[in-house]
Design brief:
alpha/beta, globular, 19 strands, six-stranded mixed beta sheet
């Protein structure tokens, strides 16, 4: 074929797909910006272009701004300042009326509905990961070849209604052999300079499935991708072949949908209102922090009984605040994977999960090794084998045509009783399950932190790590949190959620652990810090950990606010007394934190803990918890900046002490790691709220899980990308989440932060383009707040300008 170049076709498709964000499977769901492919553009231009491509709104509705303005959440002075800065002189009421009058309901085009439905059907069938009883044949040959072998038998594909090339018959029974040939066969009559626009149009038609293929193809060591490869080239070949066969438009320009320019010198009114809303929130946060700094208080005792390290997750802020009120405890915030990029395989588990941020590849394989050959491990192994056998039997009986009817007749009364119990007494079922379950592996296993001589590698990853590596992770944790003193008991606290009948469970686990619980990482770091060889190495590096300090791991259940401490070391009498008292105080903190969380959900309960536990076991409960709903701020600094402030569970808190970080290395690690993860989470919540139909996933009541990878609305269609309505709204439509872009507050010298932005252009771009904002409280200038203006320029806040004679910092790349 003249002009046929498979390499160019593949490269052009990959370029067109840059605007499509990756979509993770639900079992490892992580917060992701659905417009991540637009982050290189200013926010107003990005959302306008995304609206053209996906049909989704980029800003809250005018009624949201009106409610925020009338309730005082948008400060009138801040709004006036923002409007004046852009030459807008009309009154807020007039502007709101104008925006509401110009707002219109969207009308979805159904021109390609049949094409989308057929393509999505085949994608769901091929990309299935164990749910289907009869998978698509020939999957090992790849998506396009497998589809090519079965497409002629698909009676849902309509007969061709337009004259097509001779190789296409009434049914698709003579297709090109390879995906590049198929793409070229359809586009050979189109100018090559138009191909990227055509590809982008067809990729954006099913952004959920396309994003999932993109994620799976880019992932490392994905067994499903290795066994059943799927590429964006395969997708494009199938879609273009079907589009031409069915007479659907190939080039959007043929339908008058040529790409308009979205660049504008003036931001839309919605951008100004959103900026004022965010600045009002940020101003309140910074004012509170400054008051604490001015007071010069340090509510933590000089020598706390225990130090507890929680994930920076917004839900941790609540339990930390309640715990600190109960006794002499010091709490810290640290990325929930605790700085260790690991792949985790539980005891007697057949599943390996990455437990680190999605932009980081795991470098160590960690599994569990029983401390003794006692009965706990044997009992657990027996339970697991029985559970797997029962699950396998149930699945085979349900899928066996001959046995299905008899199975239903014989088991109907048993299942009826079980369903009734789970419906009428979810707490009782939960209690019974807890009594029958074997001990958790955490009670009789240790993580394999040292190299395993018999099994030194698992796939491509080493099992355990060297002494130098272990010391590095301990030192990095201490440096990032600015630790110089250690309490007798130090607890690293991972977190997980607890819920039943919820395909979105991983979305409320630890975002820093790729949607997995952070407990394995917490246990790994605790074991590292207790290692005598590591402590000796740390002493050589100038870090003296007292001999009477013990490191323990714990698990924070974010649905019930229960914190379970795992005691795996021999404790001294003093340490045992501290742990016993800490457990009692954690129960007190749980009661207060659970009550606060339930109040947010408008739940009035006499016993907050009992009500929270009941929600975890109720299979009809659409809102067991609200996850990170409400997140709006990220504070990087010592706990004394916020320890007297009720942040209402809306801010990520990362511990950091600029005085112990003269080179800014620790701050750079925080800003390029945890901060970026939180921006992804914040963007997912933002877009899922402002347009749940396009960027979220609609109501759970009409969801169907598909292929163990995601959900669809009804019986088919695109894979849904974001959060469900129930995670963001109450029953009456009142939003739990205020759609605000993340406000970042850093306690560090401005010049140091500027250097970090100079050295990390991708990070600076997020701020320059308005995807999040940055305020620095400069301790070298009297904690005056400086607001980032973009392009490495800063300005002191107006109310603080008179308090400093310093010239605003400006630097060039």
């Amino acid at each position: 074929m003249s002009g046929f170049d498979p390499v160019t076709i593949r490269a052009t498709i990959d370029s067109a797909a840059e605007r499509i964000g990756r979509v993770w499977p639900l079992y490892s769901d992580v917060g992701a910006n659905p417009l991540s492919g637009f982050e290189d553009r200013p926010f107003p231009d990005a959302v306008a272009e995304a609206e053209r491509l996906f049909g989704g709104r980029g800003y809250p509705q005018p009624t949201w701004f009106r409610a925020a303005w009338e309730s005082g959440r948008i400060d009138p002075d801040v709004l006036e300042s923002v409007l004046e800065a852009h030459g807008v002189s009309d009154s807020p009421a007039t502007l709101l009326d104008r925006m509401e009058a110009s707002a219109s309901d969207r009308s979805r085009s159904a021109d390609s509905e049949t094409l989308d439905r057929i393509v999505a059907k085949w994608l769901a069938a091929f990309l299935d990961q164990g749910q289907a009883a009869c998978p698509v044949p020939n999957r090992e040959e790849g998506l396009y070849r497998a589809w090519r072998s079965v497409a002629p038998y698909d009676t849902e594909i309509p007969a061709s209604s337009t004259p097509v090339a001779t190789q296409y018959h009434e049914r698709l029974d003579d297709l090109p052999e390879t995906a590049p040939e198929a793409v070229y066969a359809v586009l050979s009559d189109y100018p090559t300079e138009d191909w990227e626009r055509i590809f982008e149009h067809h990729l954006a038609a099913l952004p959920g499935w396309v994003g999932f293929i993109k994620q799976r193809a880019q992932a490392n060591n994905n067994p499903w991708q290795e066994a059943c490869p799927a590429t964006l080239l395969d997708y494009m070949a199938i879609r273009l072949i079907l589009a031409k066969h069915m007479g659907e438009p190939i080039d959007p320009a043929d339908e008058g949908d040529a790409d308009p320019s979205t660049d504008s010198d003036d931001p839309p009114l919605a951008e100004l209102w959103l900026t004022a809303w965010e600045r009002s929130f940020r101003q309140g946060l910074v004012d509170d922090v400054q008051q604490d700094l001015a007071a010069g208080r340090d509510t933590n005792p000089e020598t706390p009984d225990a130090q507890l390290v929680f994930c920076i997750d917004t839900r941790s802020e609540i339990i930390r605040r309640h715990l600190e009120r109960t006794g002499p405890y010091e709490t810290f915030g640290y990325g929930g994977f605790f700085g260790i990029p690991l792949e985790y395989e539980g005891f007697e588990s057949k599943t390996r999960t990455d437990s680190c941020p999605v932009m980081v590849d795991p470098t160590h394989h960690i599994t569990e090794r029983p401390r003794t050959d006692g009965g706990a491990a044997t009992a657990y192994d027996r339970w697991q084998r029985l559970t797997r056998a029962g699950t396998s039997l149930m699945k085979s009986l349900k899928n066996d045509v001959a046995a299905a009817f008899g199975f239903v007749e014989a088991s109907g009364s048993l299942f009826g009783a079980a369903l009734t119990s789970r419906t009428l007494s979810p707490s009782g079922v939960r209690a019974l399950r807890d009594r029958l379950s074997p001990p958790r592996p955490e009670s009789f296993c240790d993580p394999t932190i040292d190299a395993d001589a018999d099994h030194d590698h698992a796939a491509d990853l080493p099992v355990g790590m060297s002494t130098d590596q272990r010391a590095f992770y301990a030192e990095a944790a201490f440096d990032l949190m600015g630790w110089e003193e250690f309490a007798p008991v130090v607890v690293f606290t991972g977190h997980r959620s607890e819920t039943v009948n919820n395909p979105y469970k991983s979305s409320i686990d630890c975002g820093a652990c790729a949607g997995s619980p952070g407990t394995p990482n917490a246990r790994t770091l605790a074991a590292i810090c207790n290692d005598p060889a590591v402590r000796a190495e740390l002493r050589d590096r100038g870090i003296e950990v007292p001999e009477d300090t013990v490191f323990l791991a714990a698990e924070h259940n974010t649905t019930t606010d229960d914190v379970e401490i795992f005691v795996t070391e021999d404790l001294s009498e003093r340490q045992r007394a501290v742990v016993d008292r800490l457990r009692d105080d954690l129960e007190t903190a749980q009661t207060g934190a659970a009550a606060e969380r339930l109040e947010t959900m408008d739940v009035d309960a006499a016993d907050s803990v009992d009500e929270a536990e009941k929600r975890t076991a109720d299979w009809a409960e659409p809102r067991p918890e609200l996850g990170l709903s409400g997140n709006a701020g990220f504070v990087i600094g010592p706990r004394r900046l916020t320890d007297s402030i009720d942040l209402d569970g809306r801010s990520f808190l990362h511990s950091y002490d600029w005085a112990t970080d003269p080179d800014g290395d620790a701050l750079e690690n925080i800003m390029t790691g945890p901060l970026v993860v939180c921006q992804m989470i914040n963007a997912q919540y933002y877009f899922s709220t402002v347009d749940n139909e396009v960027y979220g996933s609609g109501s759970k009541t009409t969801h169907n899980t598909v292929g163990h990878v995601g959900v669809v609305q009804g019986n088919g269609g695109d894979l849904l990308m974001g959060l469900p309505l129930q995670s963001l709204f109450s029953d009456d439509g009142r939003p739990y989440h205020e759609p605000l872009r993340l406000s970042v507050v850093v306690h560090a010298p401005v010049e140091q932060v500027t250097e970090i932005l100079v050295d990390n252009e991708d990070l600076a771009t997020l701020f320059d383009n308005g995807w999040l904002s940055l305020t620095v409280l400069d301790p070298e200038q009297g904690n005056v707040p400086f607001e980032y203006q973009g392009e490495l320029a800063w300005e002191p806040w107006a109310e603080s300008a008179e308090e400093t004679s310093e010239t605003p910092v400006t630097a060039g790349r």
